[in-house]
Design the sequence.
């Protein structure tokens, strides 16, 4: 096993699927989309899936079982999980649940510089964001309602978590939007420039060198 292999959601999904049965890449991609897991696993580009499978194979976590030949389809390679892959899956799962990596999403990064928009522009942008988040929340509610009666709850943990996080974000967005509307949250370039001018040089430029 390659100790340098860096776990990823897609690699975990591949190993998780192969835990149940050997599969070829097309079936993996289809199942991830069919089960709605493409919301949390980036499987849109099949090239990324093939690249991940090759790396898993090089690391000794999966291996080729057979090659299927059918006149209706191109030749397909069927993969199966190895014992090392099964061990890696449970180790990755425990670590990713307890200590998930922060992948630096765009929204918090944008918020760290949002003062450059000005209150009016920020209000418009936040309203657009709230509308999109509200639509996403409605989709999650519909999905949970559709599957909760047919599937065990344990298979819907990712949906429950995403629903909780989305609802919390919408509540926060609505609160910020209200503060922007009432003027409780406001600022100006001049005000920010004055604050920056009051900071000691070391706070802005870092500790002196030499």
Sequence:
């Amino acid at each position: 096993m390659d100790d340098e292999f860096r776990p990823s959601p897609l690699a975990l999904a591949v190993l998780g699927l192969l835990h149940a049965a050997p599969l070829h890449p097309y079936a993996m991609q289809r199942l991830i989309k069919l089960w709605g897991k493409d919301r949390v696993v980036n499987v849109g580009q099949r090239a990324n899936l093939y690249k991940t499978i090759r790396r898993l194979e090089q690391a000794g976590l999966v291996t080729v079982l057979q090659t299927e030949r059918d006149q209706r389809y191109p030749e397909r390679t069927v993969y199966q999980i190895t014992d090392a892959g099964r061990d890696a899956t449970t180790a990755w799962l425990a670590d990713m649940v307890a200590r998930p990596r922060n992948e630096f999403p765009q929204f918090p990064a944008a918020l760290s510089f949002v003062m450059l928009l000005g209150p009016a522009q920020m209000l418009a942008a936040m309203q657009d964001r709230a509308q999109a988040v509200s639509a996403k929340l409605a989709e999650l509610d519909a999905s949970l309602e559709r599957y909760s009666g047919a599937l065990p709850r344990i298979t819907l943990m990712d949906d429950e978590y995403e629903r909780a996080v989305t609802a919390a974000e919408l509540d926060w967005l609505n609160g910020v939007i209200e503060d922007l509307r009432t003027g409780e949250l406001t600022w100006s370039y001049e005000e920010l420039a004055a604050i920056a001018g009051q900071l000691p040089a070391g706070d802005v430029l870092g500790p002196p060198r030499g």
Observations:
- The chain is about 60% helix and 10% strand.
- Residues 119-148 form the longest helix (30 residues).
